[in-house]
Amino acid sequence: MNWINSIVRPKIRDLWKKREVPENLWIKDPETGEMVFHRDLEANLWVVPNSGHHMRMPARKRVEAFFDDGDYTDVKTPDVQADPHKFRDSKRYTDRLKEARSKSGEDEAVIVAQGKVNGMDMTIAVQNFEFIAGSLGMAAGEAILAGMMRAVEDGTPFVMFVASGGARMQEGILSLMQMPRTTVGVQMLREAGLPYVVVLTNPTTGGVSASYAMLGDVHIAEPGAQIGFAGRRVIEQTVREKLPEDFQTAEYLLDHGMIDMVVSRQELKETIARICGILMKREVELPKLEAPEPEEPAEEPAAEEAAEETPAEDKDARETEPAS
User: Fold this and answer.
1) How far is 171 from 84, CA to CA, in rounded Å?
2) DSSP 34
3) What pTM does this model have?
């Protein structure tokens, strides 16, 4: 075999060969259509740099970004019966749970953790939308209650990051029972005099928005988050009216007094730390800003040097000038 067949032809084939590129290398901005490199998006906390659009942030990454230096400990949550009703639709509920755990890397739809936020001890719970749309089931309800009880035991504020499609239908009435149970947990926090801050992310809907998501001492929403109970189409068919374009958005709820503030994701940590510090009557360690060093003023010439620089004629004239 000559060099044309062994060297040249393989190189020509490589030029025309289709290269495999990972699908998640570039992410499209839903608002502007801009393609953003995934590392740039991750470094900016999943906020598109140019448009400011808040993409959905992975639950575990949110926990790491919220605590100081990403240092935290997971709170142990109770185990529950996996499939109490032996539910099955197009597939078995147990199979759906296995797929969700494999896809998200988590055991359930809620992550509970403790750590320091700007130097203050804090307990948080984060709903994972990748786990069956962050739906509220028995395990999720037990996790939220465990986090609230731990906050009461340790005397820390409790912050709830909500992202959910509502109650988990596969668990039926047992899922709906988590709404009053978590409400009891909120009451425990209030009796202990501890702040309960709710962060509403995209989306916050269904039974979750009808329970612990709207019972906070302070309600903060991320820009553009969808927040509501029933869907837009269902409401329009019920009231027989056309709803505003920005209906059920964070900005719409802020204008109508349903939430307290809309805060960008980059400012959430400092905002929550400041609010909890005020409610707990504690001083919060704010990030230190390096002030520019003041420029040293130019040294003025000494009096003796100035006198030496005075011309001799002017000096003689002053000595012979009569006193007034």
Assistant:
1) 7
2) -
3) 0.80
